[in-house]
Design goal:
It is built from nine helices and four strands, in the order αβααααββαααβα. The protein is an all-alpha fold and 276 residues long.
């Protein structure tokens, strides 16, 4: 909010009606100029998400209609879906309804094949062990129950960001993004002991889903934008185009939201029809 102080016009000398009208016009013009400049200065150049520190990430949860309290049900969708890719673009209404999403159990089973070979395929280190894959499963289920973020959506983001590889490298394009979900300055995998592996895997899921003390996670974007697809664009780009076009990456990955939508409806190995 801003305030503008305007000095009163002196009435010590009388003016003819024409001169007075000119004076008013001049003042009005000046006021409009000042107001326009202030509004332009205050307005963001895009619908930029204003990152805020999450005071207590483990308490963060979805507070709108996107909330999901049924994480215990792993048969909550349409089964395994079909391994195909449909290119989705534009506004959120153009993306598949949640009723078209696959079941969490079937989705996780399918993506185990990628987790078992994703690290070496990408040159990131040894492939996930069966224990580490189970730790990812348990962490997603636990954090989904705590955050009310749909477990299928958390899994889709994990696969999109790291193919479920616990050794995924940390990226930094101005913000440090580590771990399974490439979170905002969060935790990385700690291989020291079986216990630290389990705890660090869970922390990576917490950081990406519920946010960190450095920045937002899925919960904050879902609460801000009201839906999963818009939240995916925010999570990847940090902003959403003014026209609501979720295919506009704003410098990030244009295909990100389309990829996530396809993961939620059964995509595994089919060729992508989206071109970055």
């Amino acid at each position: 909010m801003f305030f503008i102080t305007v000095s009163p016009v002196s009435t010590s000398s009388r003016r003819s009606p024409i001169l007075c009208d000119l004076c008013i016009d001049e003042i009005s013009s000046q006021l409009l100029t000042v107001l326009f400049a202030a509004v332009v200065a205050a307005a963001p150049t895009s619908t930029q998400d204003l990152e805020a520190r999450v005071v207590n990430p483990t308490k963060a949860r979805v507070t709108n209609v996107a909330a999901n309290s049924a994480s215990a049900n792993i048969n909550d969708g349409v089964g395994a879906g079909v391994d195909s890719y449909t290119y989705y673009s534009g506004r959120a209404a153009n993306f598949p309804l949640k009723s078209k999403w696959v079941s969490f159990g079937a989705m996780f089973t399918k993506y185990k094949t990628h987790m078992r070979m994703g690290c070496q395929n990408n040159g990131w280190g040894p492939n996930d062990t069966e224990k580490q894959i189970q730790d990812i499963y348990n962490a997603i289920q636990s954090v989904s129950a705590a955050s009310l973020v749909d477990h299928r959506y958390i899994l889709a983001i994990v696969m999109q960001e790291s193919v479920g590889c616990v050794w995924a490298p940390t990226t930094n394009n101005g913000v440090r993004n580590p771990g399974l979900m490439q979170s905002h300055n969060g935790a990385t995998f700690n291989p020291s002991t079986a216990a630290t592996q389990t705890s660090s895997i869970r922390q990576m899921i917490v950081d990406g889903t519920q946010g960190t003390t450095s920045g937002d996670g899925l919960v904050q974007y879902i609460n801000r934008h009201g839906g999963y697809y818009a939240a995916a664009r925010g999570y990847n780009s940090g902003s959403i185009a003014r026209d609501g076009n979720l295919s506009n990456g704003n410098g990030a990955t244009p295909c990100y939201v389309s990829d996530v939508a396809n993961r939620l409806t059964g995509w595994l190995n089919a060729p992508s029809k989206c071109r970055n």
